[in-house]
Amino acid sequence: MSRFVRHRLDRVHHAMARHVDSGLLPGAVTLLSSGDEVHVDVVGNVKRDTIFRISSMTKPIAAAGAMVLVEECVLRLDDPVTEFLPELANPRVLEDPAGPLDRTTPAHREITLRDLLTFRNGIGMLPGDSPINEAAAELRTAGPPKPMTQLTVDQWLKKLGELPLMHQPGTRWLYNTGSDILGALLARASGQDLETFLSERVFGPLGMVDTAFSVPAGKLDRFVVSYMPNLQTGELEVYDEIDGSWSRPPVFPSAAAGLVSTADDLLAFGRSFLGNDLLSRASVTTMTADHLTPRQKAESGFFPGYFDNRGWGFGVAVTTRRDNIYETPGRFGWDGGLGTSWATDPAEDLVGVLLTQRADFPDHSKPYRDFWTSAYQALA
């Protein structure tokens, strides 16, 4: 018996086709999987095997890589990262996150792997203008995702270690930077560069043949242009060309936003959490639990109301309350600011993937909301 209602699956296609026909999207690939069923739909100028920039969806993949090393006892969740990242030893913390850089106090403790995975490492995207944000600009701790080409990993760590933290480790959820630190940690702990480590320990075991930090010349015919809407007119403008930033290996492979991938590769990753294909059941349960306190959610500085019905695990958002068709408690996943989304829902045995070329923020994105709404109404 099918896990989907056939005529309702057509609504997924119609929802995306409407956005392509209106010019909002150049194209879209959608994928829904439950049990042994996989339904893929393609609209516009793309194909099933088109390669997309998945930007922040890199974060959960890197987090899964970290849990591989935790299971092997190479890393431990609550050990200081300074064993492998001495540049970050003895951190100091700003007395006022918006204040001058020379007014600091010693950190209460060192940064741990758990801090990186839960974005409570003390530095990240801090709202507003401040001296620390200006000082961190060279390190790309904020802003639209693009490969880091100006600094090597070692240079980046040295500069990061020279900056004070915005908050005490373990106390405040601050987006993004923890994943780039995590990428450096994975490389040093494994003794390999980040891409080799992920290729051997995550991509290879799961059969993710098109996931990488750049697109080789032989696959560029399957790559697409990335677009960013103009803030004034809404018209799409080219953000990255096919032969642009992702057409060559980066100097700094970003575990925060650097990967490219395909719908089928992301299906393999999403389903791995249901079948324990990569990690043990205990690790999956830990990774997809909500690790934030109510106060940390309230002070996150993320989109207003974002954490009202969500928490944060290790590199993934976790739904904690149903107040929408597609928000099932226990559902987890993450999205990419360049127009992509993935979620796994254990209660429904569902994996969903949306890949587009239009940069957007999911909570404000009509294609995002329409895809997930039509995906859940299609379930039998």
TrEMBL record:
Domain of life: Bacteria
Record-linked Gene3D superfamilies: DD-peptidase/beta-lactamase superfamily
Source organism per UniProt: Amycolatopsis magusensis
Protein name per Swiss-Prot or TrEMBL: CubicO group peptidase (Beta-lactamase class C family)
InterPro entries: Beta-lactam-related (IPR001466), Beta-lactam/transpept-like (IPR012338), Diverse_Enzym_Activities (IPR050789)
Lineage: Bacteria, Bacillati, Actinomycetota, Actinomycetes, Pseudonocardiales
Pfam families according to UniProt: Beta-lactamase
Domain Beta-lactamase-related, first and last residues per copy: 16-363
SUPFAM superfamilies reported for this sequence: beta-lactamase/transpeptidase-like
